[in-house]
Amino acid sequence: MKIESIKIKNFRLLKDSVLEMKDGLSLLIGRNNSGKTSLLVLFEKFYNNENFTYDDFSISLRQQIDNIDIYTNILELTIQMILEIKYDESDNLEHLSEFILDLDPASNTVKILFEVTIKKEKILPILESLDSQDKKTRYLKKNLQNHLKTTIYSFENDDDLLEVNRYKLIKKDLKQIKNIINFQIIHAKRNVSSSDDNKGKKILSSMTTKYFNQKNLNNPNFSNINDQMITMDGLLDIEYTEKFKDFLKLGKDFLNIDTLKVVSDLESNEVINNSSKVIYGESSNHLPEHLNGLGFMNILYLLLDIEMKKESFKEEKKAINLLFIEEPEAHTHPQMQYKFIDKIKEVFKSIENLQTVITTHSAQIVSKCDFKDIRYLLNIHENIKIKNFHSELKELYGTEEEEFQFVEQYLTLQASELFFANKIIFIEGTTEKMLLPYFINKFDNDRKDIPNYIPISSQNISILEVGANAEAFDKLVRFFDIQTLIITDIDTTFKTQNQTGRTIYKGHKVDGATHTSNLTIRKYFSSPDVNNNTFANWFENLKKESISINNRKIKLSYQIEEDNYHARSFEDAFIKVNLQKLIDNKSVLRGLKNDDELIIRDDIYELTEEILDKKSDFAFSLLYLALSKNIDWAMPLYIKNALEWIQNDAS
């Protein structure tokens, strides 16, 4: 038995969202403000019968709520959560049977509706007594929670939710839900504190005590402790009589009460509640828990809390165990995050009937999980779409199986941060990887005095080196629906024949070139076949930068004509705009050969071929001179244009 899906309507950003649940782990990821926490909070509110407020309703409904009248259809304003539970003949249906409405033996799904409804008949008289819309809105914001009702129903078909069919809904109560589902949650706010904050310094000790009590307070061996408590009570009574005699005399005289006493009231619970603490270090020189690092404290807290939840799941033996964990990575470094998710998945396997939902911003946790577990939350027009990452992306790639496998493996290995980025920059090689951060910093500094300028460096942009494989990411960036800049080389070639008469395409400077070998350019700009008679015209338009991509959130930037010269590569373009500075510093430049050829020349393409040896060494020395000698390298125009585009919002 398992929860197959959770459908949500009208709760905060989750206006119309569906989470497809996994049997084991479902990993909820997405950029900030994508509704991950809201989903957890909604389930918790319904399960614990907590109050809903005005702010819980989707923003798109606020105007209708503010203007509620006798004609308002309240069903359009309800917050709903629908659980679809799947079962089979091997499951114990003792409690679920109360929700089974379809007697067809082929049917094995139960649908449960949780609903928050505005009590229109109660609130309308109050609103009508207020003489302005502003007063009505203020009243609703402060008091709507007092005019809401929460109801649980079992139903058979989605059509039963229509107003004309709601008589088919069968009312249920929360106790019946809790007979089926044991729900536990671990929030991101876990009260762990550093040595500078002693308010929560015993949070781990409190957890260990709570865990110990959970396992042992009903143990018959505790009777011995209770006997000792009674003996201790008697001894303390004598001590209290002596120690409090002045206080008791004053109290008796003041209140005229002869029977006033202070007595011992030891209970085993009291003692046990303060009986344990967490320390670390050698036993002869240990330190208290609050002097431990926040990362260690967070992990220890999580492990203890998960162990307690595990005990609850085992003891209650419900048909469905549901565990939500919010942001387990708090305060922990990347290596610890890797280790935590590996270890905790083993713990999950030891709990029967467990479905776990984890929300995270950690690329490390994502990279250690199966991509089939990922549910990607994306805000589309003020509604959160919860995408089944693996299946939906695979469908997008269709027959392009090799590209899909490459993207899947690449993301697992090094680029899981893409899931959380607000923008992406794909770069081709090592040179760009080293120098792009320098160019970004230079670009931002040149514009720091512009009012309301938002630096590129502050915009949560992921920069990834993908070599010549950027074309494989086409479907991925469209799936993410994220502003994406691809910086690449035009890679022009010349069509000719080799000695055997076979057609080949040799690298060639842009002037006089006939083709491009860059597959990324050809894919994104929908290149015709090289043998098509329209190819030559397409290639000329490419050189003029007059071809666009049919997606305003994607820009492909490559070398363009600058100062009457059209470069073929980054190095080619860089040498053109920095030639004199390179000449002035050639004695300290690395990665060059034939540096005596580094003189003022017009044939930049040939010069680049003659002097460039190791691109990575060349790039490193350029960066070194910029940072240590304050040499201000000029930025090629196509890089500058690319940064202008990514700095602005393309949505």
Q: What is the number of E strands? A: 23
Mean pLDDT: 86
Largest beta-sheet characterization: 6 strands, antiparallel
Radius of gyration: 34 Å
Protein name: ATP-dependent endonuclease
GO molecular function, one term: endonuclease activity
InterPro entries: AAA_GajA/Old/RecF-like (IPR041685), Bact_Antivir_Def_Nuclease (IPR051396), P-loop_NTPase (IPR027417), TOPRIM_OLD (IPR034139)
Organism: Arcobacter venerupis
Write a concise keyword list for the protein shown above.
651 residues; alpha/beta; six-stranded antiparallel β-sheet; six-stranded mixed β-sheet; 38% helix; 19% strand
Task: Write the topology of this structure.
Elements: E1 2-11, E2 14-20, E3 25-30, H1 36-47, H2 62-66, E4 79-86, E5 109-118, H3 120-128, H4 133-143, E6 148-155, E7 170-172, H5 174-178, E8 181-186, H6 203-216, H7 223-243, H8 245-255, H9 268-273, E9 279-280, E10 287-288, H10 294-316, E11 320-326, H11 334-349, E12 354-359, H12 363-367, E13 374-380, E14 383-388, H13 389-397, H14 401-414, E15 423-427, H15 430-446, E16 461-465, H16 474-480, E17 483-487, E18 492-497, E19 503-507, E20 515-516, H17 519-524, H18 535-543, E21 554-557, E22 561-562, E23 565-566, H19 570-577, H20 579-584, H21 604-611, H22 615-628, H23 637-647
Parallel strand pairs: 3-12, 3-13, 8-11, 11-12, 15-16, 15-17, 17-21
Antiparallel strand pairs: 1-2, 1-4, 4-5, 5-6, 6-7, 9-10, 13-14, 18-19, 18-20, 22-23
Helix pairs in contact: 6-10, 15-22
